[in-house]
Amino acid sequence: MAKQALILIDIQNDYFPQGKWPLDGVDAAADKAAQVLQAFRQAGDAVIHVRHEFTSEDAPFFTPGSEGAHLHSKVLNEGNEPVVLKHFVNAFRETNLRALLEQRSITDLVVVGSMSHMCIDAVVRAAADLGYKVTLIHDACATRDLEFNGKVIPAAQVHDAYMASLAFGYATVVSTDEFLAPV
């Protein structure tokens, strides 16, 4: 029988409007993530929070011990919900995330968080490669504009390109409403 866990990736203060690295649409995405979080809590399903801190005080955001590196109030962990601290883009790299999933006999992951083009992309691909069935909630993720070769790529296009890519071979990609709809 499949056992699922919600993985909340890097929903941290620095990504919000008053933070050091604000993302486009982050408040709306965090509100959707909070809806999914509430559903997991009500169902008694596993919830694991992941938070990123860089190891250098010179980092552009998520500096060690800073308020910006703390989980945002919309999705704070409660009770026995573990918080995995990571120092790399991939939440599985040099963390206890996989051990936590194995201890709980988790087979299916539901992923929300930030940034679509970095940590979400990395964790979804890694999870699929490790054999997990992954569902990605696209409107519970956020990113920002990128620049490449002298061109600015708007955040919405960055997000859509990554969601399309992950849907092609790594995850089932759905909206919050689709995920929470009664079966």
TrEMBL record:
Which SUPFAM superfamilies does this UniProt record tie to the protein? Isochorismatase-like hydrolases (SSF52499)
Q: What class of enzyme is it?
A: hydrolase
- Output the Gene3D superfamilies linked to this UniProt entry: Isochorismatase-like
Q: Isochorismatase-like domain location, by residue? A: 5-155
Q: What is its EC number?
A: 3.-.-.-
- Domain of life here? Bacteria
Q: Which UniProt keywords apply?
A: Hydrolase
Annotated Gene Ontology MF terms? hydrolase activity
Which CDD domains would you find in this protein's record?
nicotinamidase_related
Q: What is this protein called?
A: Cysteine hydrolase family protein
